[in-house]
Write a structure and sequence with these properties.
Layout: H1 4-9, H2 11-16, E1 23-25, H3 29-39, E2 45-47, H4 52-57, E3 77-81, E4 87-92, H5 102-113
Parallel strand pairs: 1-2
Antiparallel strand pairs: 3-4
Amino acid sequence: MLKSFELQKVKANFDAEGIAIVMMTYDEPATQQSFTNRHSIEYPILSDVGAESFARLGVLREEYGPEDPNYGLPYPGMFVIDTNGVIKGKLFIEAYSYRVDTDAVLSFASLNLLK
């Protein structure tokens, strides 16, 4: 989907719609913190070291086994979760190099929260 520093650039647009951004990666917390500091990220980034959450959510890339250095890499995408913790929308893509533009992500999130 979007790279985390791209999301930071449009965070105000999401805030204006009442939509919070939370990201999850398979990186160690220290790596995340370094990235967060370097790019001035102002939203939470969760760590899924071991990929348990990605596996349970069905977005873990299965071509990488636990012995592979890329293990834990999810498909790029997003969930739209309402204030009650209910998943209202899910958008994941197989091509890791493909990214959806920020306006499309905001529209997807807004439309799915209205359901």
